[in-house]
Amino acid sequence: MGAGKPSGEPNGMRFGSVCVFCASSHGASPVYDTAAAQVGRLLAEQGIELVYGGGCVGLMGTVADAVLSAGGRAVGVMPVALVEREIAHTGLTELHVVASMHERKARMADLADAFVALPGGFGTLDELCEILTWAQLGIHRKPVGILNVAGYYDHFLALLDHQVREGLLQPRHRDYVAVDDDPRRLIEKLRVAVLPDEPQVRVAT
Q1: Which of 5, 59, 70, 112 could be bridged to 1 by S-S, CB 3.0 to 4.6 A?
Q2: Where are the beta strands (DSSP E) in 8-158?
Q3: Considering only CA atoms, which of 194, 134, 183 is closest in space to residue 20?
Q4: Where would I find the H helices in 4-55?
Q5: Do residues 52 and 30 make contact, with C-beta atoms less than 8 angstroms apart?
């Protein structure tokens, strides 16, 4: 820590909010729920608002419940079609109801200062890869991290390395992704991350 910084105060960039991408199911191992709850409590502890997909089920529900139980703020963004299926979390600080999945992702990106992916399926990978693509295109300059719970993302990270070796992903773009298996360390990595400095492309999201 820098001289004079109060003990326990985070170094680096201050986040008002972090967008968490994660599954609407709990997965096969209890370690995923445990990690989601740890992330939620950590965000609340550090005064960081949760931005997420707005669900009450799976890891999405776990991380939101943990934030709220610890006295933090949880903001959800959900398409109206999913709200009508009664999977929206009814206890959130705020719930933004939008028209489409595309609008959902754009709204979450606008609301967040950084992004963290927890274990998940197609939807989580879609959100993670799109937000990395937007960084690559200069649409945003916000740090992106993966919480690699119990090696869940090992194969995905190996694929990124394979893409670099095959000349299909530039090393600097690979380096956009901060990775750790500990939530607190991951947040600290995001705080000190070197942000993308790509020429901005004006693309409607």
Answers
A1: 5
A2: 17-21, 49-52, 74-79, 94-98, 114-117, 144-147
A3: 183
A4: 30-45
A5: no
